[in-house]
Specification:
- The protein is mainly alpha-helical.
- It contains five helices and no strands.
- The protein has two domains: about 60 residues, no CATH class; about 45 residues, no CATH class.
- Helix content is about 55%, strand content about 0%.
- Helix 2 packs antiparallel against helix 3.
- The longest helix is centred in the middle third of the chain and has 27 residues.
- The chain is elongated and about 65 Å long.
- It starts with a helix and ends in a 19-residue tail after the last helix.
Length: about 120
């Protein structure tokens, strides 16, 4: 690293731009490789920082939600919940029912995996 990199890292820290110190060199190289402009570089690093802030915000909201565990469809045990048709769940995962303005109701006895889909 050189002195300019150190100064940039210090400024990023002071401005609380936490994603930029580690990633701006690769963004700069990509901008050069694509014959980009200064404005292209600036837009890319600002987008990078914005994306990082959104991810931190999402993680904070998720942590504050009090949800015990994050569950995904990839983790769902179809063998345990034998009455759940995999094809129907995969179709619902595509979210086409939203565009069709349809409701989805999960019904069943206790212990069959309905809360996995919360």
């Amino acid at each position: 690293m050189n002195l300019q990199h150190d100064r940039i890292a210090a400024l990023c820290e002071q401005l609380k731009l936490d994603r930029l110190p580690a990633e701006w060199p690769s963004v700069a190289q990509a901008t050069i490789d694509n014959s980009g402009t200064h404005a292209d570089f600036l837009e890319a690093v600002l987008q990078l920082q914005h994306d990082g802030q959104n991810e931190r915000r999402r993680q904070t909201i998720l942590r504050l939600s009090g949800l015990p565990v994050i569950k995904t469809l990839a983790q769902f045990d179809y063998a345990y919940a034998s009455g759940v048709p995999r094809s129907q769940i995969q179709e619902l995962a595509g979210l086409a029912f939203i565009e069709r303005q349809e409701n989805v109701v999960l019904l069943g006895p206790s212990g069959v995996g309905k809360t996995h889909f919360d």
